[in-house]
């Protein structure tokens, strides 16, 4: 409590930006009569060494931290009906007792409970308190979005992970105190469910949280773009303005970020098409007529603040001097230290193009998490995307790992704890968190590659449910990706690249066969694409697939080449369903139930080829 007098008193309090964090916001108020008036809001200076020391301490005691985290989760939600139905009460703290009483579940098992929350049931269903918001997954993995509870604790986890990862990045790639980040972030609209609960994508719930901007400022990650751009209802106008904003702050940009590598590649492909228009805006000091959202137009006009022919000429010269846009990012942003985003798993196909744009700039992989919550931080940021590993943060949730056999099937063995995993083994991740997910199977397959102190370091392998299968064959998203990469080498000989791809299992024909959809950067001869088709077919080395192809119980693989812009239409479809542009991931395996996406792909086929590899 501050100084007191007969006429005025002041007081202050701190809000920590996440559990066990080294930074807080201090609010100072003065009492005028009975009304508090805020005098200042001070964000404590980021202490990199303290954050790293806290992570070191936590990971050295990973087992104890896990037990304490589970205890806190169960205590906080002891009144939850779901837990009480399984005999969990405030006295249950032992992990073995918890696992003996509560079953493993999937999103389908929890869907009825979460639906009640969405519909406005405020009783303690999964959590003791009503959730402030519901997150929507992108829906690209299963063809339908999932509803996921979003709580203040998940927001704290997000800020904690951002700060932890930033501390390790900043140790290896120090950035200027007054620098900015060019962040391609997009906040789609929240809507209010019929039960009165705000619903939005996970990224939207994070960006709209009042602590987000303060948290980003504390780690020197202020966005170049005005808030009006981030919250624009038109994603195309927002992207144009992000690019323009970044260039206006080009000397201050310390790193370039998008949630996914796909978003980064899409942003700079867009720049290739629109750079002359952006330069004209800067030269004349007048915003393009393509920006029609009033709030965005007002904010960007203020940012432009008049003609800047010198900057315009600099950008024009830089663009015209590049060879096939190689090194575009450092040419535009000379003080950038790295490019940052999720580059593993389904994002790996975009790394080659991103590396082309980045030139010599390091590519740093974003951390590992999902719409359900964050799991692990990249504490070795100098590793390339192909080598990237992630250290599990022990207090973000209670983690278990289901062992998988060499065929990718779940073994009969029960899940093991965080510190009990074996190096070289693959597991499915199981999470219990503060937001009402208990022993929840994420569907992610990870491989343990080592330990950071006593917490495991893992690599993301694939989604379990994204599998091409007709009979005894089982090909994962990773298998598809490797097949495409192999076939794309033949295309590269013609100086053509695969822009994007997806797949589908066609069982309407007899026998069923795999269909691969490709969007490519140029035209080539049919014999080249036939070679690619054969290479795709031979690229699936799963024993079940190869034997089925040889005995013709699986038909010849079909390659369908689609028109340029087709995968943009697929993205537009998902955005129309409520997905965030920043959260979007291209579906790699389109299920039969996803009729609209299949229709988009099939309606835009320009050529098709059947494999002769096994004839």
From TrEMBL:
Keyword Ligase (UniProt): yes
InterPro entries per UniProt: GH3, GH3_C, GH3_M
Positions of the GH3 C-terminal domain: 479-592
Regions crossing the membrane: none
GO molecular function: ligase activity
Pfam families associated with the record: GH3, GH3_C, GH3_M
Amino-acid biosynthesis listed as a keyword: no
GH3 middle domain: residues covered: 391-463
Protein name (database record): Jasmonic acid-amido synthetase JAR1-like
